[in-house]
Amino acid sequence: MSPRGARARRANGKKRAVWLAAGVVVLGGTGVTAVAVSGGGEDAGPGDGSRPAKAHVLALDGKDPKRRSLPRTETQTFSLIGVSWEDSGDTFEGTAQIRTRKAATGEWSEWSDLDFDVRAPESAEGDASDVRGASEPLWVGPSDGVEARVVADGEETAVPDALRLDMIDPGKTVKGKGNGGDKGSGKGNGNGKGNGKPTASPDATPEPSDPAPTNAPTTAAPSADPGDTTGGSGGGEGSQPPTDEPTGSASAPEEPAPSTAPTESAPGTDPTEGPPDEPTGAPTGAPTDEPTGRPSAEPPTSEAPTDPTPSTVPTEEPTGPAPTTDPSGTPEPSATAPTAPAIVSRADWGADESLVQDPPAYLNKVDAVFVHHTAGTNDYTCADSPAIIRAILTFHVQTNGWNDIGYNFFVDKCGTVFEGRAGGVDRPVLGAHTYGFNSYSSGISLLGDYENGGTPTAAAKQAIADLAAWKLGLHGVDPEAKVTLTAAADTGVWTKGQAANLNTVSGHRDGYATLCPGASLYSALPGIRTAAGNSPYSTGN
């Protein structure tokens, strides 16, 4: 699905930590070397029961240029897994399947496919010398064994160089305490705006996991609908929806988060329901609308202002390269900004700020919102959401080599909204989520897989609608409108420099050749746009 072609990898002067800092252990009988990777913290936290997220890798070595395999192998405990390779410009074309062993029961999962529809951002961040190509990560729950098989597709295609498995242990946090705090990040994590705790999980019997964040939400979370929230975790052979998994490590059980069962939505009352969009595919002709502006060749990487008050962001179209500082200069409280929906801060979901080496970069304006899904499994409790996001942060930084987590926001199936990339939820933070259009947009990712049977809940759809309405409203953008943007790269749907006519609330597949955000979530986007237009957070209301 991804465009093919090598891209020059240039060092841009960024100072990055060297992650391969721990011991090397040869696993008996496998001939595979496991390199333990340290995120800079100790195994235990500061005496409060917390521990930092950690990554470790297994090399997929071999002489066959088209195949790699890993027999059943014991390894350190992990909950999220993916594959990566040396050159991010070498797009992998083929199939990678993994199966994992549950740490608590020793049961092996069915085979699951990994998705290969992610690209390094087209900004300077994507040209850093340590950026790697990678699959989308797959959440599997606490596991201590893995088996893998990778096959390149086509006569002229080979397995990429330095192919490896990347496994992430999301660690554990204590209520309201992030791993590493704001240490060295220079970030305003949400500016104190609308932090909230996750609502109750729709699962009948939630598993123990991270304690829920303690700050009460400023708005009530919508109720979940009775739709299917247990979609399949991949299209591998013999794949099936995963069974319930423990949400804590077998060696370090975590406290359960109290919850109550939410009220289910009545049939036919989902305010986001609407006719499905047709996938755009490759455009048939150049749109006549004029683009709002061309993206900067190298989006800014300057440090965020330290004043935590919200900025007044200009509403005019960008006319040139994005500024190197927040375009408003010294931020002043915005008189027209609507009240924000409840958003769980990075501190409350446990972001390890020591991973983030460079300050955030900003856009002139957020012209559009792209909706994504994380893929992986739908069989998670909402108490798992902070751990899933911590694992994705660690994967994006230590595996992909990005500066921070790629998405600007996350939403889970209970409708809880989480702050993603640092820099201020009310500011136009440059993310790494939609290749070719990052310089104009904000990215919202729904936890779960909505391509292989999963159905987004009413709570999740309403949360996406409210968040999109608020975020676009800060920039005077109608969530039910169209916008014309200039593609900053060849995306498989648009060519570089082409004028792309898009909805202001679009799916990832509208901008890039991918199945994301999945068929069922993509078909829900018309209703989400309508709900955003009617949202109390929309500036039109």
TrEMBL record:
Enzyme Commission number(s): 3.5.1.28
InterPro entries according to UniProt: Amidase/PGRP_sf, Amidase_domain, PGRP, PGRP_domain_met/bac
Residues of the Peptidoglycan recognition protein family domain: 341-490
Gly residues compositional bias, start-end: 177-195, 229-238
Domain of life: Bacteria
Family: Belongs to the N-acetylmuramoyl-L-alanine amidase 2 family.
All residue ranges annotated as the N-acetylmuramoyl-L-alanine amidase domain in the record: 356-497
Region Disordered: start-end pairs: 161-338
Record-linked CDD domains: PGRP (cd06583)
Gene3D superfamilies, per database record: Peptidoglycan recognition protein-like
Entry keyword set: Hydrolase
PANTHER family linked to this entry: PEPTIDOGLYCAN RECOGNITION PROTEIN, PEPTIDOGLYCAN-RECOGNITION PROTEIN LC-RELATED
Keyword Hydrolase belongs to the record: yes
GO molecular function list: N-acetylmuramoyl-L-alanine amidase activity
Annotated coiled-coil segments of the chain: none
Protein name: N-acetylmuramoyl-L-alanine amidase
Comp. bias intervals (Low complexity): 212-228, 239-272, 279-290, 305-338
